[in-house]
Each structure stands twice: as C-alpha cells, then as structure tokens.
Here is the input.
Amino acid sequence: MHTLNLDGDVVALLQQLIDIESVSGNEGPLADAMETALRALPALEVTRNGDAVVARTDLGRERRVILAGHLDTVPLVAGSLPSRLEGVGDSERVVGRGSCDMKAGVAVFANMAPAIDAAIGRGDAPDVDVTWVFYDHEEVEDAKNGLGRLVRETPELLAGDFALLGEPSNAGIEGGCQGTLRIRITAHGRASHSARAWKGVNAIHGLAPVLTRLAAYEPRVVTVDGLEYHEGLNAVNITGGIATNVIPDAATVEVNLRYAPDRDDAEAVPHLLRSAGVMDAEGKPVEGYSWEITDHAHAARPGLDSGIAAEFLKAAGGRASAKYGWTDVARFATLGIPAVNFGPGDPSLAHTDEEWCPTADVHECRRVLLTWLGLVEGNVA
Here is the structure.
C-alpha cells in the first residue's frame, strides 16, 4: 500500500507521486493513496469515481475554486523511475516520468489541502470554498477521460466559479486553449496493374491537390481576450498503396486543425474540409473524396475577465499568455466555468524521455496559491 504525505515538503511529495507508477490505465494505486490521504483531513468531503478522486470543502462561501490535475502519465522509458533530484540551488530539478506532466501540478494542489484543513480548524478559513479534482485517463483517447466522466456522471461535484488546471506552464498563467480537430480524408481511385496504369485511377495522386492546398494555407494569428493565438492546419499522417506493382485505389491523409477560441466549434469542420478542397459549397464531398472525423475537442476562451480570475491573475504577477494545444480547461468551459492552466514545468518537456521539472517552479506555484488563498506560509510544513 502506497502512502502520500500531503503536508510535508512539496518537492518530496512530488517525488512520492512520481514513484507511484500511474501510466494511463494503471492509476488505481495512486488514486488509492490520494484518496486515503485526503480522507484523513476532517474538513474535506471526499468522493471516489473510478480512479478519480474529488475532495471538497463545505464552508458555505459564495464562491468556489477548483484545483484539478490528472494522475496518469504516458508510458515509461528506461530511466523514467524512480524519481531523482539533480542540480543545486536555482538549477535543482526533479527528474522522472510525470514530473512535468503533470505530477508537479498535482503535488502543489494536493499540498494546499492540509493547509486549508488546518486553517479551517483554526477558524481562519479562506474566503472561498475549494474543490480538488484528481482524475484518470487524460493521456489517452477522449472517451476514457476521467474528467469527462465526472462531467457526464456527477457534474454537481464540479460546480464552481473558477478552475485551475495544473498543466505545466512554466509557473505562469496560460489562458484558454486551442480547439483541435482531426479529419481523415480519403481519395478514391481505381486499382490496376502498374504496367497498365491507364486503366486505373491513382488515389495517391488524388491527394496531391489536397496537400498543395494545405501547404499553401495561411493560418490566422488572432487576439482573443488580450491573448494571441496562432492557428495551424497541417497534414499529420498519410497512408496509401497496395503493392509496388499496383495502382492504388485509395489513399488517406489525416489533417489536424488547431484553432483559436474565437472560432465557433461547429465552423471548424467545414473550414478544414473547404480549406483542403474536398467539400463543395453545399457541404457535400467533392467527387473522388470522402472524410471521417477522428477527433474533435472544443476550444476554450481565456476567461480572465471574471472577477475571481482577475484576482488570481493579480496574485500571479498580472501576466498571462495563450495556451498552445488542447487541455481539459475546455471541459470546464463547457460547464460555464472560467479556467486557466497554471502549473510548474516547461510544457515542451512533457512526454519526453528526459522529462523533468525545476523545483523553483514548484515552490513558485505553491507561493502564488498560498498568497491567493490567504494562507500563512507556516501553515504548511
């Protein structure tokens, strides 16, 4: 049975989290340890849903904030575990799978729980209620996502006015997120022997005009709620061919659109298809092509203009940048809850073999949260 010491040193807690292996699908032992640690805090109401753990204060405050993070990681590589400390001073870092994405964020958020529990016990509670959401299956297909499951099954547990997602953001605020859409476009032809190519229609060649249009596409750069987002439309996978002496009768290209949160989600599909030249003005496939939507996750606006979000922005130094990529802040957006990404670590190190997180980022995120929630540093060991 694994254990977690939530009120100890936050970097030590990060290492404990890393050392409980939790590749997607194997979050159970870590969820068990987190549930046990949170249930030991009398001021929290704890709920388990699958391998997601939700803890809530019930102070009757007018406003509620949500601290959310996923427990799972991408698969291990040689040297991923156990965790280890490297460097000294400002160069000190924690190395190990999940250190950046996103057990550092989970460590900071979980470390707040005993501080708030102690403050409530002293009669010195924050002026907001707090919900912690630690969930499973973020690193795999959307249908398995634990936060999505909570949205569907127990949305009342996710009620709130503002949410922080502990994704790595270099200890700064990244607002909103891009939407992502993937469509598999198929060019259809007619097979024949390559020695009699005139009797066939080469489907691979049929993708040429699609690829030409994608290569010539000029993505938008747009400002949304004061943050600058760069869109992108790219071919990300291509397949085709039967044998080296056969004219192929089918070839596919998968196209990924990353779009800014001012673009309507329903508009994204026809925009991609028309940009690729495979949808006509009536919304029908151009002759010789078909398509299939393989993934669509909605965008989320920054939401930094809400009162409680503006307060957090001020506590974090008043600066924010746009989030490139999709994160679960979009799920909170669908619930009408403003949300931002705020966590230790460089997002470019997520999923890499050499994943690591600066301990300075961990301490800075912890400091910001303590300040914002009105907690005294001495409340946490």
Remarks:
- The mean pLDDT is 94.
- The CA atoms of residues 19 and 163 lie 27 Å apart.
- The first strand starts at residue 45 and ends at 49.
